Amino acid sequence: MDSNEATTSESVSKKKGKTKKVKRKVKPDEAPVQEMGQAEGEETEKKSVSGPCFPPTFSVSEIKNKQRRHAMFLKLKEEKRKAPPKEVPKTIENQRIYDETTVNPEDEEVAFDEGTDEFSAYFSRLTNPKVLITTSDRPRGRTVRFCEQLATVIPHAHVYYRRGLALKRVIPQCVSRGFTYVMVINEDRKVPNGLVLCHLPDGPTAHFKVSNVRLRKEMKRRGKDPTEHVPEVILNNFTTRLGHSIGRLFAALFPHDPQFVGRQVATFHNQRDFIFFRFHRYIFKNEKKVGIQELGPRFTLKLRSLQKGTFDSKFGEYEWVHKRHEMDSSRRKFHL
Amino acid sequence: MQHDDVIWDLIGNDSFCSYKVKTKTQRFCRNEYNLTGLCNRSSCPLANSQYATVREEKGRCYLYMKVVERAAFPARMWEKVKLDRNYAKALEQIDENLMYWPQFIRHKCKQRLTKIAQYLIRIRKLTLKRQRKLVPLSRKVERREKRREEKALIAAQLENAIEKELLDRLKQGTYGDIYNFPIHAFNKAMEKQEEETESEEAEDEEEPVTREFVADDEFEESDLSDFEDMNNLKGSSDEEEDAEEESREEEESEEELEEEKTKAQSKGKAPLKGPIRKKRAYVEIEYEQETEPAQKSKAT
Q1: What ipTM was predicted for this assembly?
Q2: Which domains, and CATH codes, for chain A?
Q3: For residue A161, with 0-12 CB atoms within 10 Å meaning exposed, 13-18 middle and 19 or more buried, which class applies?
Q4: Would you call B166 and A292 a contact, using CB atoms and an 8 Å cutoff?
Q5: Domain of B121?
Q6: Among candidates A154, A105, A116, A103, which has minimal Cα distance to A133?
Q7: Is A223 or B140 the better-scoring residue by pLDDT?
Q8: B210-225 tens-digit pLDDT
Q9: Is 90 exceeded by the pLDDT of residue B287?
Q10: CATH at residue B110
């Protein structure tokens, strides 16, 4: 029994709870090994050392041979010096359930779709954006100010007061006047809480929930008002197919060629299905450093539904609708 | 008619009536058949045996009439007449039905009809316009969303992401020639630094293997200070191009002399060379004697 245990201790890897009997059995096994010639001894030693064959109670000091002991000691020291690999912490982004609609950059099908969808006109530089911003009925002060600030942020944007007009009537009028976007900010209890973004000729309509609106007055350490220069656009983390289309929706709001003189940048950053909008002015201090200063309003959006065609809540065809019970069941699943 | 005054006495001015709603200035009557809505002697449907009202049901107006003869039959007390949709015709109908009735009731009925007609028109107009759909918010869901948004904001690290993106764009060259950072020079400098660090590391590893204390000959030449020694060393190293290792070691020794205790070179050989240097300094007794009394004087 004991001899069996001894032999297994040499061949099998770490076993916990080794008794002292086994250890002593191992020693006499090693002693004859050490008594043999150095060359052979070294080989067997090395074989036993290379595989994790030692019982855990083994320590270097028990090797009788000085040189071999020294070699083992140096080896152990070397291993200790190499720090253990740093473990990567789990984050929600790491653990995100893989979405099969994630767009591969070289995907031809997606590229073809994008070449022929409603935004292709914009992306092939046929049209220039012109945005109409309006609100729901009877907007209160905060919403009105928000609209004004949005109009400064987005170039070629016009704010119109909604006098109880139906959107369905508004849209053909806008089309006839050459607008490419209609943005309706919905208000609830004196605070903007919804956004309907409709791409005009016959584009998709996206409905967002708006939260955490900060007007320019409320920003800390903000810069001066944004100028008339066309800002750059940054779109972050729009990975899935749906995210891609929403990203293009935002991109088409802004004119093509940003004026770098203005040094302004508008960012739409998607994180866990929340889209954060920020507007900054940047300055490059040197090659490796850039300073940014927040200017305009900030808000966060959450997509509620994406409808093909212009705004038509009754008969429209919805590409994507947020269904809470189906889509919010998992904390690691995101759709944008 | 006989009982009207009695009834009014019982329920009327300061008495109790279950339909009565009293405010500071006025008395209202909640009776559904009341013509004006106020609690008055002439408007009370209980205290008037002959009474008429106009009421609206599902968009149609009806004229209700009550007469004394039917006072004993509560089930049939109110006579219901459907009025025409046309406002003018409905007025005529009222006139026709309430032909010999008191002026007050006729007038009030017509007024009530007018008001009802107006609000029906308004309802129809509003239904044609956009309806505001009220969507209930679930408090639990709202709280959950708010929390998730905060967490997402923290995870997003927006400033860093924006800065990174901008720097990437700068590197890619989307900005063209606007920003005149000396890119090439910078990159070259970076590469040089990398080479130097690599070479130094390589040398550090090699040092235990090849220990050559070559500088003995040169040091015997000069009787100057260490710094001047180094100047000579530098000059000599520039001139000599015998062995790269030798020159490198000399440069290193110069660096070590310049920076007294080199923190950067924490690997093997610096301490070894240090004591050797000091030994050499101690060998040349002149230095020692010069420094020591100075220190002593400073101490005192």
Answers
A1: 0.73
A2: 107-328 (3.40.50.10480)
A3: exposed
A4: yes
A5: 4-128
A6: A154
A7: B140
A8: 677 776 665 665 555 5
A9: no
A10: 3.30.390.110
